[in-house]
Specification:
- The complex is a heterodimer of chains A (246) and B (248).
- Helix content of chain A is 84%, strand content 0%.
- Chain A has helices spanning 2-18, 25-40, 44-65, 74-114, 117-123, 128-165, 170-178, 184-209, 215-244.
- Chain B has a single domain, classed as Rossmann fold (3-Layer(aba) Sandwich), CATH 3.40.50.
- Helix content of chain B is 41%, strand content 25%.
- In chain B, strands 6-7-8-3-9-10 form a six-stranded mixed β-sheet, with helices on both faces. Chain B has a four-stranded antiparallel β-sheet with strand order 2-1-4-5, covered by helices on one side.
- In chain B, strand 4 (55-60) and strand 5 (63-64) form a beta hairpin.
Chain lengths: 246, 248
């Protein structure tokens, strides 16, 4: 318990350092562009790939569970749409990004810590927490929602392809996709994603920033970043769903 | 000139530095020597401001660091150049970007002026036209030289070097030592080198301070060191049997 409280205190102290005005905007912008590329652009491929196939699997499994002739076929489109928008795209993609982006952030900052690069920044008079972490948080807040929206779209294409393979016609599927669509569900997904983006980037940075030792410590910080980001994402998923939807 | 007065530093119950007093003179290479675990790295971290919880005074040209406000501290940090043990070059930046980094953050120089300054520093450390190499493409000695170039790019008043020769072959180590000494004399800066390399001590030791078990044990220059009868110092400096025979 004492250890947990220490971590929480240290995390908030780090965040206080992170949330400060950058030394020089031109240098910050350069850093931000680098992070947008590393965190966002480099994750597009994996998000598209996973979303397409999971979308396909969701619609096939839904079709298998709705084999009763009394149930209309368009329900497959509707169920796939809601599963993708409400849960798969925001939560599962954020968990996947916690693995990909989170481990990369923690190991990058951790390596900088153990090789004294962070000390070098501090000695120059640079606020290392803000310089290294703030661009990562902003890049994540900007790119995670875009990736999730992309995932929703590609997931639905995958679901349509999956539906075709189990004899769901395009018109039935499209009707289901549009049937009683509640636009607020997309807003809910974006709100959740923003929270998850902040959790992944800040927690992973925290574990990297306070890494101590050598290569083993960097590996440990990377693992901890993924594990704790995933746990916190799941807890906040429950809390946010309860607050927003219930 | 840098002075430290009555420095005490503990980690929990472990007292690492005990009432340490030292003076590091301008235009000289001031060496801090001592066994591993003697407290010299802690001392250098206090001097460069990485450790803040200590008792005693650190004076940079008479100004007490702990009494400085944020603005004065920031100014002081820009007057400090640091050469880390492993170089601490930023992996994702090229040689040129590494050296240019402090300039781009703290000066209003144009791109052309910055590149001119970078080229001057690279030439000074004999690495002309290596601008576009990445740190991963450099040898250990080249990394140290790039780190020296980065440390001097802002024309610092104080240069700190943490074990500048570790991991280098004797010939490259002497090149680095000579470079540190030349820069110290050329720019008339206060240089502090933390080392346990005896070649360095004999090569560049203008003013040597020996720390033993967290205490200031001996001080002098390299000539005085050779003839000193201080037991702990002799055991440290002339550790090998060959050196002991030579000393006799």
């Amino acid at each position: 318990m004492q250890k947990l409280l220490k971590h929480i205190g240290q995390y908030f102290m780090m965040m206080r350092k992170v949330m400060s005005v950058p030394e020089k905007w031109s240098v910050f912008n350069k850093q931000l562009i680098l992070e947008l590329e590393k965190i966002g652009l480099n994750s597009i491929g994996i998000v598209l790939f996973i979303s397409f196939f999971v979308g396909g699997v969701v619609s096939i499994q839904t079709a298998l569970n709705l084999q009763n002739p009394l149930l209309p076929k368009y329900l497959i489109g509707l169920a796939s749409r809601d599963s993708l928008i409400l849960e798969f795209s925001p939560t599962m993609i954020s968990l996947i990004l916690a693995g990909k982006v989170g481990s990369s952030i923690a190991s990058e900052i951790g390596s900088m810590r153990v090789s004294e690069q962070i000390d070098a920044l501090e000695i120059m008079g640079v606020n290392s927490a803000s310089f290294l972490i703030l661009p990562k948080i902003i890049a994540s807040l900007f790119f995670f929602p875009l990736l999730v929206i992309l995932s929703m779209g590609i997931g639905m294409i995958g679901a349509w392809v999956g539906g075709l393979s189990v004899n769901v016609t395009t018109s039935d599927f499209m009707y289901g996709l549009r049937y009683e669509f509640i636009p607020f569900f997309v807003s809910y997904a974006i709100i959740k994603t923003l929270a998850f983006a902040f959790i992944v980037s800040s927690l992973s940075s925290y574990f990297g920033y306070y890494a101590k030792g050598g290569a083993v410590a960097v590996g440990k910080s990377s693992t901890e970043a993924v594990v704790y980001s995933s746990i916190v994402i799941l807890v906040f998923n429950f809390i946010l769903t309860k607050i927003i939807l219930a | 000139m840098i002075e430290i007065k009555n420095i005490d530093k503990s980690f929990g119950d472990n007292k690492v530095l005990k009432n340490v007093n030292m003076t590091f003179k301008k235009g000289q290479t001031n060496l801090i020597i001592g066994e591993s675990g003697s407290g010299k790295t802690t001392l250098i971290k206090i001097l460069i401001g990485l450790y803040k919880n200590y008792s005693g005074k650190v004076l940079f040209d008479g100004s007490n660091v702990s009494e400085m406000n944020k603005k004065e501290l920031k100014k002081l940090r820009q007057d400090i150049g640091m050469l880390f043990q492993g170089g601490a070059l930023y992996d994702y930046m090229s040689v040129e970007e590494n050296i240019m980094f402090p300039l781009s953050l703290f000066t209003e120089k144009s791109e052309r002026e910055m590149i001119e300054r970078v080229n001057f520093c690279l030439e000074r450390v004999n690495l002309k036209s290596k601008n576009n190499l990445m740190p991963s493409e450099l040898s250990g000695g080249m990394k140290k030289r790039v780190a020296i170039a980065r440390a001097i790019v802002m024309q610092p008043k104080y240069l700190f070097c943490d074990e500048p020769n570790s991991g280098l072959d004797p010939k490259t180590a002497i090149l680095i030592d000579d470079l540190i000494m030349e820069i110290t004399k050329e720019y008339n800066i206060t240089t502090i080198v933390n080392t346990h390399d005896m070649n360095s001590v004999m090569q560049i030791g203008d003013n040597i301070s020996f720390i033993h078990k967290g205490e200031m044990w001996w001080k002098g220059n390299k000539e005085e060191l050779i003839i000193s009868n201080n037991e702990e110092l002799t055991n440290f400096v002339f550790a090998s049997k060959l050196f002991k025979r030579l000393k006799k």
